[in-house]
Automatic annotation (TrEMBL):
PANTHER family (alphabetical): TRANSMEMBRANE 4 L6 FAMILY MEMBER 1, TRANSMEMBRANE 4 L6 FAMILY MEMBER 1-RELATED
Species: Delphinapterus leucas (Beluga whale)
Keywords carried by this UniProt record: Membrane, Transmembrane, Transmembrane helix
Family label: Belongs to the L6 tetraspanin family.
Transmembrane segments: 12-31, 46-70, 91-116, 160-179
Subcellular location(s) of the protein: Membrane
Predominant location category: membrane
InterPro entries to which the protein is assigned, alphabetical: L6_membrane (IPR008661)
Any Gene Ontology CC annotation: plasma membrane
Recorded topology in the membrane: Multi-pass membrane protein
Protein name, as recorded: Transmembrane 4 L6 family member 1
A Pfam family of this chain: L6_membrane
Length: 202
């Protein structure tokens, strides 16, 4: 098995997942495409934790690019030095995967908390507060209560959709990084790459 190719596939997947996480997090700042809610501090405080930008985004790009660089055209790794590069590079990818696990884990936790608390919105009493904070996430199963948020319009749908995306993508990133830890250990023990014409088993 060519462990380097597997790592490269994981790396490419993480890049796209990280980009979507960053976009989803940015959209949370602009309910209905409006900027005034961010400038007036009427957003959920979990939006300001940058879970998608930092956790599921930037922290994920570092291991992603490392994984992508494990398999070069000459399959020698580590600057082309075949004798020292192959297994060392795969073992070092485990450390990069741990960074990815930390970032994706952060993204998942913050997104879950954001979903549980709900959006900050203007209610019928004319106050800006967390209308669903005391429901322990129960509002997610009862869409009839979402109309309690008067402004921003569709605030609950916006909040739920984007935090759900961050939760799901963060979970996928976590699984991929966990898989790369296993892949990296096996690659480091067995020797990870082969030439284009020949493949070596453990």
């Amino acid at each position: 098995m060519c462990y380097g190719k597997c790592a490269r596939c994981i790396g490419h997947s993480l890049v796209w997942l990280a980009i979507v996480c960053i976009v989803a997090n940015i959209l949370l700042y602009f309910p209905n495409g409006e900027t005034k809610y961010a400038s007036e501090d009427h957003l959920s405080h979990f939006v300001w934790f940058f879970s998608g930008i930092i956790g599921g985004g930037l922290l994920m790009l570092l291991p992603a690019f490392i994984f992508m660089g494990l398999e070069q055209d000459d399959c020698c790794g580590c600057g082309g030095h075949e004798n020292c590069g192959k297994r060392c590079a795969m073992i070092s990818s485990v450390l990069a995967a741990l960074i990815g696990i930390a970032g994706s884990g952060y993204c998942v936790i913050v997104a879950a908390l954001g979903l549980a608390e709900g959006p900050r919105c203007l209610d019928a009493s004319g106050q800006w507060n967390y209308t669903f904070a005391n429901t322990e996430g129960g509002y997610l199963l009862d869409s009839s209560t979402w109309s309690q948020c008067i402004e921003p319009k569709h605030a609950v749908e916006w909040n739920v959709s984007l935090f759900s995306i961050l939760l799901a993508l963060g979970g996928i990133e976590f699984i991929l990084c966990l898989f790369q830890i296993i892949n990296g250990v096996l690659g480091g023990i067995c020797g990870y790459c082969c030439s284009r014409q020949q493949q070596y088993d453990c």
